[in-house]
């Protein structure tokens, strides 16, 4: 089997396992996995920019929230149906990431981190400022009746799981395909050596901008999906914490790997959930585990796997 | 309140914020400049400073100045030592790799927050200021064709707030003297310029790193001790100082001490002054965008040299 | 985190066996019971599991700590008095980090992992709103103690109820008559620029205008702000009353800076105690509050005419006459809110007993039983005062207290009637399917 085939089998395998799991998991973990898949799609989106293009953004909550509010406000303020609302969320994410990319890509390195951070902070405050429509920090509920997509009630556990599976599957396969396209290879070239990529005649700015928009739109899809599947839209999802989460998940799972974002998200979710069952000081456990991981698994979980066991893992 | 006095009040208040911010940011700038790592836990060292100040001030009775005096002497050193311990046990072992440092310092952040919650608790607690007198301030108006002094309603500050500005300025001058006129400052600057070269010249880079990490945390703790009589110690108070000082360091231009101070003043006073014209939240949004645009159009920061 | 606590049920099993032994002569009694009765008694000794969503970490932790203590005290009391339908109450606590996302996960955990009978105890509005949709979908009765207007506004669902604490809309509008007739008619409002503050802005402005007063200026403070003086010059010079409300860890700074801003010539001041909840009124810098007024959900200081119920409540929770912990006088409670946990748990008990609650299959019956409630008498179960429950809006209404800072203590000067707090229904949850 060639490498391409191997990786394809691996990723389709993961999707098959995730699809099959819904029939065996107990209710609690079934619900958790649906959540994790949507959040992992967010991490996958983040990884396109961070892992493959080498741009560290601290403002992705802006895109996640753009998708969530683009979708939520369409339903809440204009009574739209879920599908057009989802499209609105995606468009909002694409537009916001285009605008932010256009400005922020004038900078690089740490300045890029700060500019994205500050635009995201301005976005968070904007959500609060328009409290009349957004209900600020409290947020608003998307009622069960408003979450019926083509006669499919998305609040039903099975439907929700399947929708989350679709969101994750689409983003995963998109990334997998991306790495194999010439476009994806140019992004990796930019990450490795921007100057050389420029010398070779690639339009670095245009490629980076496209990566920001792609990454932002996938993040927005996750945000819109999260709001629609779990029925709540709130400003806490726009806060700086939610910009740091995908970075943490990707680093934990392994930056620049296709499976890393999912593994990192899964790991962090259950780290908090299980340690909170042991002690009220669960953040202490989480903190210690993070420190230990940086000491003993420097490339992230999937990254270590690749280093030690399977060199060809994408 | 009329325009003039309002502007003066907003500026004074901004100056207090800027003073504390400058200290915290200079601490971060040292770490970031010399060690090239993003220390996400920097705000937690700030928080530890405030919480330990509350603890130290409670150790001694009598005049509040005694407790505060003890806090300002002991707490920054204590926090500095904690930071040095974190440096040699964790950061050194991961070779100051930029990405791993982010995860590791997020881990340290969780650990410090949870330990503080378990020992100090979730309440916001005050420390009494060593001195605190309300000072009404005068303003001028033109009446009968000549300027006259009057005392506008609400235009005031406190002696302690002025004290904070003074103390912060003194410490900043001290840091500047340390960096430019001492041997250890020279070692730090040499390490900052070129780590490999510094190693080659026999500079104990690892020890310089530990020292810088401790000094940075100590400065953050000192800033917190100064602010805690105005704001209270709370276990989640580290978030804002981290973000703001991070922003200040980059806007000022990496490694530029004057740049850091100017940026701190810019950020400290901008939302206060803009709020003279707009509603507070809108002012904050505009101030944030304004500062971000500074960076968009001058990516190397205000005082940074553009690297080729 | 998960912490389960099983306070002893009284009379305990040992006592019961002793009684049996004395009355019917030993082991014969136990074996002589028919099979179904033994089964039923085994079934009924299973504890009622109350999923307690508590803010242990995050911004709500200071409140969470006292919500925890009050809930544990209430559960202990209920168990000492025979539990619910003869079954002990077991509190299953989970931290939600004061975060709406984690809050929703915790509600799922209660319903599908811990097999809780109900969810209970959430305070912060965004956590309630983030969690309630999941509670509704999982058909888990969700008793919140939040004082938000979210329940009565119709935003939530049939499974979410607030029977133990009044909502912000009724509190705010009940203050307007007192403010207008005693303090002044020209008001400037200072509030946090998020939903909780906007509720104050909207409902108080309308209510004071109905009293012939007006709001001169609305000053909305951005959340996460830590320094406030720069916004105070927006206060108009002819303000007669400052209406202030602030939440979060910076509240003490806010109130202190307000005092420093005005110096010796302050207008009348009326604040919501949220501005100083869990903060000692004797803290340095708060001297200027002397003579100012506060809304309190429940007076922090034991009043001269203290009811026996309030005395009982204080004793059981471990709060002294100054509203602080009996073990640490510096540990000031969130007295204006935490009674809600106590009262809600007693409503749950009354509801379960009225519904003949046996287990999760009776959850719908529990909702209907609580919806059928109306008057709640001032009693040990309702130490804050008498209340009226509105089954259609799922919201309780009650007396509100206005206290004045006198010699460093909050002394009661006015108690509103329940009628002052009523407003037209905005929803009828009973029309929704169960």
Automatic annotation (TrEMBL), chain A:
Among its keywords, does the record have Cell membrane?
yes
Q: Name one GO molecular function term.
A: branched-chain amino acid transmembrane transporter activity
Q: Which InterPro entries match?
A: ABC_transp_permease, LivM-like
Keywords on record: Cell membrane, Membrane, Transmembrane, Transmembrane helix
Tell me where on the tree of life, at the top rank, the source sits: Bacteria
Compartments it resides in: Cell membrane
Broad class of the protein's primary localization: membrane
- Annotated membrane topology: Multi-pass membrane protein
Q: Which GO terms describe its cellular component?
A: plasma membrane
Q: Which residues cross the membrane?
A: 36-55, 85-105, 112-131, 162-188, 209-235, 247-269, 281-301
- List the PANTHER family: ABC TRANSPORTER ATP-BINDING PROTEIN, HIGH-AFFINITY BRANCHED-CHAIN AMINO ACID TRANSPORT SYSTEM PERMEASE
**What protein name is recorded for this chain?**
Amino acid/amide ABC transporter membrane protein 2, HAAT family
Organism this protein belongs to: Shimia aestuarii
Automatic annotation (TrEMBL), chain B:
Provide the alphabetized UniProt keywords.
Amino-acid transport, Cell membrane, Membrane, Transmembrane, Transmembrane helix, Transport
InterPro entries from the UniProt entry: ABC_transp_permease, BCAA_transport_permease
Q: Does this UniProt record's set of keywords contain NADP?
A: no
Query: What Pfam families does the annotation carry?
Result: BPD_transp_2
Q: Provide a GO biological process annotation.
A: amino acid transport
The species this protein was found in: Shimia aestuarii
Name it.
Amino acid/amide ABC transporter membrane protein 1, HAAT family
The membrane topology term of the UniProt record is: Multi-pass membrane protein
From TrEMBL, chain C:
In terms of domain of life, where is this protein from?
Bacteria
> What SUPFAM superfamilies does the annotation carry?
Periplasmic binding protein-like I
Asked if the Swiss-Prot or TrEMBL record annotates the protein with the keyword Aminoacyl-tRNA synthetase, the reply is: no
GO BP, one example?
A: amino acid transport
Q: Which UniProt keywords apply?
A: Amino-acid transport, Signal, Transport
Q: Name one Pfam family in it.
A: Peripla_BP_6
Q: Which InterPro entries match?
A: BCAA_transport, Leu-bd, Peripla_BP_I, TAT_signal, TAT_signal_bac_arc
Do you know which Gene3D superfamilies this protein is assigned to?
Answer: 3.40.50.2300
Q: Does the keyword Transport apply?
A: yes
Matching entries from NCBIfam families are given as: TAT_signal_seq
Q: Which family does it belong to?
A: Belongs to the leucine-binding protein family.
| The protein, known as | Amino acid/amide ABC transporter substrate-binding protein, HAAT family
**Organism this protein belongs to:** Shimia aestuarii
